[in-house]
Every structure is written in C-alpha cells, then in structure tokens.
C-alpha cells in the first residue's frame, strides 16, 4: 500500500490540473517555468508548498477552500491537464465527446485534490529531495527522480514524468510512486468503472461525490 504522505504529495501535484484549460494561459508562474528544467520545477514546487504550509496547518485544515486554492496556485501552471486526462481515459478517450473529456478532466482531478489535499498538511520543507538528473535526457520527455522522507526517516521513491507541451513548456503528466504509475493505476480503475456503468455515470458520480468517489475507485482497484 502506498504511504499516505508520499501519495498525497505526488498525486496532488497531478491533481492540480483540475482547473479548466482557459485558466492555464500565460500566468507569471507559467512564463517563469518556460525557463526552468523539470528538476528545477519540482524543487520550486516543493519549496513553495513547504513555505505555504509550514506553521499554517491548523488554519488550512479548518479552511479547505483555502487549502485547495493554495495547492492550485502553486501547482497549476506546471501540469498538462489535457494530456494526463486522455491517458487516464485510455481507449475510452477515442469515443468520448470533447464535452465529456473536459467534464471528466475537471471532475476527476477536482475529486483527487479533495481526497488527498489534507495529506499535504503533514508536509514540511525538506520532505522532498530532488535527485540529480541522469545523463542523456530526451529533449521531449524527462523523468525527475525524487525521494519523499517519511516521519520514520524512511524514503519513498517518487518519479515525475515531464514532456514538452504544445506551448513549449515542460509540464508533468504522470507520477510513479515506488514503481506504480499514477496514470496506469487510475486508468485501470476508471476503465473498470466505465465498463460497469458508463462514462457519463462516472463523471456524474465524480462531480457529485468528489473524494468519496475516488475512495470507491481505489477500493475496487485495490489501491491505497
């Protein structure tokens, strides 16, 4: 089973793509990210999250909208919502309408954020150690290796998969936690749910139940 803190930190990074695509246009953070390497982006996110959360745990725990807004403010510019959501849908993306794909992306990632946001309240600066980049990186795709330090001092391997998005920026779209791909894990769960009911039914349940719907998917898929 995945460790809660590592999973919360890693998955919430991808979950920050929940806002509509129009919200991702030309922000100062996005402009700055165009000049950063994927390693620098992950380190910057870790530092900013630590600064935003340290000493504010009680306040953020009692103000969930502020916690979600903090996560989105720091993370949103750095992730490719369209690409990630298409990968999660897998073969069902080919038959989904544009409206279904947009609704699914927003509902699914909003639900993920709701489910794991509070896990980040245990996060402090220094919890994430960004490892040196390996030689011979691809010009279009890179993996940033990190280690998340748990309360007992043990370390969990967390890799972030980046690609060059259509806007030319490095953006993340997948997280691999102890060898388990976030995209592959949820694609299996989502596919099973669509086969059991339908894409529209899944979207409606995500929109109405939020994090509780993610818990149901996890139980059906055996994820932690």
Which keywords apply here?
globular; 5 strands; alpha+beta; 54% helix; Nuclear Transport Factor 2, Chain: A; 224 residues; five-stranded antiparallel sheet
Question: What shape does the CA trace take?
Answer: globular
Helical coverage, percent range: 40-55%
In the CATH hierarchy, the third-tier topology is known as: Nuclear Transport Factor 2, Chain: A
- List the total number of helices: 11
Q: What would your notes on this structure say?
A:
This protein is α+β, with helices and mostly antiparallel strands and 224 residues long. It has helices at 4-15, 28-33, 38-53, 57-61, 64-75, 81-89, 92-95, 98-116, 182-196, 199-209, 211-221, and strands spanning 128-130, 141-149, 155-164, 170-177, 180-181. It has a single domain (4-221), classed as Roll (Nuclear Transport Factor 2, Chain: A). 54% of the residues lie in helices and 14% in strands. The protein has a five-stranded antiparallel β-sheet with strand order 1-2-3-4-5. Helix 1 packs antiparallel against helix 8 (98-116), helix 6 (81-89) crosses helix 9 and helix 8 (98-116) crosses helix 11. The longest helix is centred in the middle third of the chain and has 19 residues, at 98-116.
């Amino acid at each position: 089973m995945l460790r809660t803190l590592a999973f919360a930190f890693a998955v919430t990074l991808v979950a920050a793509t929940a806002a509509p695509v129009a919200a991702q246009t030309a922000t100062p953070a996005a402009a700055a990210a165009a000049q950063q390497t994927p390693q620098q982006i992950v380190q910057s996110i870790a530092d900013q999250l630590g600064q935003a959360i340290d000493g504010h745990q009680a306040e953020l725990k009692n103000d969930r909208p502020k916690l979600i807004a903090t996560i989105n403010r720091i993370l949103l510019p750095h992730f490719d919502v369209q690409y990630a959501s298409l990968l999660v849908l897998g073969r069902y993306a080919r038959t989904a309408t544009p409206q279904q794909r947009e609704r699914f992306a927003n509902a699914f990632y909003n639900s993920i954020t709701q489910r794991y946001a509070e896990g980040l309240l245990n996060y402090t600066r220094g919890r994430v150690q960004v490892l040196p980049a390996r030689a011979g990186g691809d010009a279009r795709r890179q993996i940033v290796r990190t280690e998340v330090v748990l309360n007992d001092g043990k370390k969990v391997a967390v890799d972030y998969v980046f690609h060059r998005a259509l806007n030319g920026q490095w953006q993340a779209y997948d997280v691999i936690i102890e060898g388990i791909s976030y995209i592959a894990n949820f694609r299996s769960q989502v596919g099973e749910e669509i086969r059991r009911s339908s894409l529209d039914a899944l979207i409606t349940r995500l929109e109405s139940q939020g994090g509780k719907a993610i818990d149901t998917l996890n139980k059906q898929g055996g994820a932690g």
